[in-house]
Amino acid sequence: MGDEKTVKEKNELWEWTKALLIAVALAAIIRYFVFTPIVVDGYSMTPTLHDGDKMIVNKLGKPDRFDIVVFHAPEHKDYIKRVIGLPGDKVEYRDDILYINGKAYDEPYLEKSKQEIFDGPLTEDFTLEVVPEGEVFVMGDNRRSSKDSRHIGTISMKEIIGDTSVVFWPLQDIRMVK
């Protein structure tokens, strides 16, 4: 009878160990291939994102225009910016208005910042004739204080970790961002 109890305890311990190992393996796979957390570092995406916001990065899918993405920057640091231009696009700013392939686009995420600026445009005029194949043109929402494609060039799709739209920390600021 004592041997039966020991065998039963060993089986139960093994079952718990297997369950724990499977849970750890699944968590590692999900984090490596599907989702990963990131902390916003700096003010280049203000007012949309704030320094210290913690977000979830979705590693699945392909980034689209106006998505917020995280990528490996040339400085060996991860940046978080908004996709403005896709491969083949001509990107232009004139009089604080975004034109892509000659068509004007609204940027509602910039409205608050534009209302607070009184000494010139939020975004200086520039033209990028074409976004190279396999690359994207990115900009921070804090246009006057963002190191983005205007400075570091277009970003290879291979350098993009994923897109993000969920702030999960601090708790009082949990939200979806666009």
From TrEMBL:
<dbReference type="InterPro" id="IPR000223">
    <property type="entry name" value="Pept_S26A_signal_pept_1"/>
</dbReference>
<feature type="domain" description="Peptidase S26">
    <location>
        <begin position="13"/>
        <end position="169"/>
    </location>
</feature>
<dbReference type="InterPro" id="IPR019533">
    <property type="entry name" value="Peptidase_S26"/>
</dbReference>
<protein>
    <recommendedName>
        <fullName>Signal peptidase I</fullName>
        <ecNumber>3.4.21.89</ecNumber>
    </recommendedName>
</protein>
<comment type="similarity">
    <text>Belongs to the peptidase S26 family.</text>
</comment>
<dbReference type="InterPro" id="IPR019757">
    <property type="entry name" value="Pept_S26A_signal_pept_1_Lys-AS"/>
</dbReference>
<keyword id="KW-1133">Transmembrane helix</keyword>
<dbReference type="Pfam" id="PF10502">
    <property type="entry name" value="Peptidase_S26"/>
</dbReference>
<keyword id="KW-0812">Transmembrane</keyword>
<dbReference type="InterPro" id="IPR019756">
    <property type="entry name" value="Pept_S26A_signal_pept_1_Ser-AS"/>
</dbReference>
<keyword id="KW-0472">Membrane</keyword>
<keyword id="KW-0378">Hydrolase</keyword>
<keyword id="KW-0645">Protease</keyword>
<dbReference type="InterPro" id="IPR036286">
    <property type="entry name" value="LexA/Signal_pep-like_sf"/>
</dbReference>
<dbReference type="InterPro" id="IPR019758">
    <property type="entry name" value="Pept_S26A_signal_pept_1_CS"/>
</dbReference>
<feature type="transmembrane region" description="Helical">
    <location>
        <begin position="20"/>
        <end position="40"/>
    </location>
</feature>
